[in-house]
Structure prediction request, 942 residues.
Amino acid sequence: MLKWPTIFAAVVGITLMASSAAAAQDTNSTDCNPTNIPVLTGKSGNLKIQISPDKWPGKTCQWNVNVTDGFLHLDIEELVISANDTLKVTTIDGKTTFFESRGSLHPGVIFIGNQKQIQISIIFTNDSNNNRVWDVMYGNDQTAQLLNIAGTGRFVFPYTYQNSDFKDISFSLTLRTKYNNKKLLMNMEPPHDFNDTLFSFDKVDKYTNQNLTGTTYPDFLLSTDQQINIKISKYSKSAAETKNYTFHYELVDSICSSYKKLTDLDKNKTVDIMNLPTTVQLQSLSSYRCLRIYEHENQDSKLLLDLSGFKFVNTEDIITVLDGNTANSQPLAVIDSHFVNIYWSDQYLYSSANKLWILYDSPQVINTVRQPLNVIGIQALSQGGSYQFPKNDTLKQIVYKTSKTVLLPVTYLFNGNVNQQLAIDFDEKKPLPGTANKLFMQIFDETGRNGKPIIELIGGSYPPDIMAVNGMQLKIVFNQNVTEDFKLNVIQVPKGCYSTVTGNSAAYSLSGCQTMCSWLIPKRADSVGTFVFQFSHLNLPKDSDVIELVELGTKDPFKIIDLKGSLQSTTFPDMNLDSRQTYALTVRRVCDKSSIDGSQLLGVSVIFIDKNLNQNNITFNNETVNSIIQTSNYPNYYPLGSDSHWFINGTVGTGVDLVFITFTDFDINSGNELFIMSPMKSNISVPSKLSQIPDYLLQMPVFIDLNSQLISSKSDPFSGRGFNARIQALKCGGIYEVSSKATTNITTPSTLAGVPQCVWMITTDNPSKGINVMSFELIRGEGFDDKNLKIYDSNNTRDLIEVNQTLFKTWKDNFYNTSVNTMIIVYIIDPKKPAPLTIKVTQTACDRLCHNNERCFLPQFQCNGHNDCGDFTDEFYCNRTVPPVPPAPVYTSTGVNGWVVTLVICPLMVGLGVLGTLYGPQVLNRFGRGRYQEFHDFSAVS
Prediction:
């Protein structure tokens, strides 16, 4: 049996031990001279030699063994020879070889078989740098013993030569430690295919009196005292195969090493798994090695290791935790006393199955006072665990099962490989189980205890299609029970195609061709900020290329972007997204040879800004009277992706409770809409063309919403300039509707101190035919200055169409008429001479419409030198000209000075008739002399 004796240099000694009958003839054999070969006889015997390096270089040392009958074997306790030395076991004449090996051998058994005489030879090389040690026993029964194990090693059963042939051998092994305070720990090394060989073990935990055959092998062999008995039956070997079994053995301390089978599940408890020696026992030890092996009787359970109540005893202590019950199991952690606080504050240790191996080494006992805190907790869970992806594996399915007694939370840990990343493949078409609006699961990009989740998903919400972490670690934590089994696929993929935003800024680019790639932007549930989403370029070369941006939440996934190729854009607008939602950008392609290229499909970035860029608040106080609202980036493309909001209000107690809104520019793409809400009108849909948008006089608070969620579009640009509007806060003003039955009186407040202006919007009721207009009387107070009053004969002040007070004065002082059914009165109050104003308004029917049916043809319009109708109806027949009937249409200018293509009547050049001419401002000035000297610029025509 194996023994590592002290090597005595320069001494050669041969001791022959045999049966009493043969001992005398061998006692004088002290030389390895081939002419005087030592002979061992009897049923069993032992031969020990030690040869110093300088004695037998290049020579052969031999021994003969004679037995009467039985199964002959050599039991190696120690064989140390040079790597080039050769050991041979042959017949006496050397013609038949039973075993041959070069170099040292581990302890074990060499099978010879049914032989009566053998010769053992060690052929030494010229290498004189190593001592040679031989400690071998022979026997003719079928038992072998290794009784003085003092450390770590391997035992091989059996060593056989390739031309050996054995059948149905039964053999007994006994392995024993030489120390009474140690236990023997053994593991069988691969391969573990026993075929028809039958193994049984005695004096071991778990496997005592169990018969193992086929591919069923022991996880571990831990002795209950100092030794392990192994019985091997039906061992067979053909001459054409090499077949042996190897055991790795080592020693652990008896007082703190054991195996325990657990029965409880999902109970939060800790146990003293180390059971370290008392102070008196520690004082007698120079080191100790404690092993605890845990296994739960439920095959589906997992084990959690808890070191929160543990302290190392000595500074060199170390803990090794393995995910299984053998020394070859996947390591979960190797921790020493210097890093325990750092490591255990950041790590979970979950087994991937129902087994856990914990080895506590203290190589040098310095502190002999047992610490009060050295308790390690073991918690048995019905679900959860830790998984290591093999290098070439791409998928692992986990099933979160129904359980009323499960201890929450349930945690799954996954570890991938270098240059790979992990992702979760959800069924994005099904909502998650669990209670609605309550946290169901969290996903982390590392396995630490104190990390923050990169995404949290609530019950009833729709998950992303694929949720990727940017590294090799993934943690999934379930926070609710489920009523039916919930399946998830965890996949291992190459880096690049999938990504998840984890910081305040990130970028994502994609080239080549993958069937699907995705970029996830998790929500910031605790923030009201904004994700600013920007494309640097976007290129979808084929019709089958698709890009989607989806908002994920409790409702069905909402598509913000749904674009299909072929498409190329470098002017895609920014996207301001609500950071309280989760978004997934997905690119799908039909890959073939024509779609695989090195060009980038897209480049996109996202920046988190801790401010709601979609919410704009304006609060007017007593002094503030005007401001401007406009879309972000105006006059460039406005952002898409989510609604933009403006909230306009006045400061309480200042009396500022009205707001007057005038749009000066409006360019909103089809599919986007603008809405205005106030207490006076619940929901106003703003027209899509600037020429159709009136001014709005509303009671505060006022809410303005721009719906700019892009659904689907191939247009480029994808958004317009947006809008720009002037807003004025008012203490004085209002909206009035007059009827034909009564006069409406409008007047300034009794005191005008601190009132800078008044704005009134007056409309008639809706007639069944034609339009109704208004007659009104102005009653001016003392000191009133007409320059402070503007009366717009329109529903907006933007077009600058006013009631011509001068003309009306020539007709009847203080009495005026409108030509449309709406007028806006703006009265600027002189703070030095605040004069009151009263307006008496009466609705009247329009007797005659201009030819364009847009204005009432008032008598005062006729031949006054102004194009009051807007189509020259009021100026026809003036200066003896005859217009065509019906008059030719006159098209409204855009308001931008320049050339305008139109058809006009040139009354001063009758001979030209109707001309299709290009007219610019200078030409119009030339035609405007004389009777038409008021027409300075065609662009001023309404």
In short: The chain has five helices and 65 strands. Helices lie at 23-26, 279-283, 340-346, 805-811, 921-927.
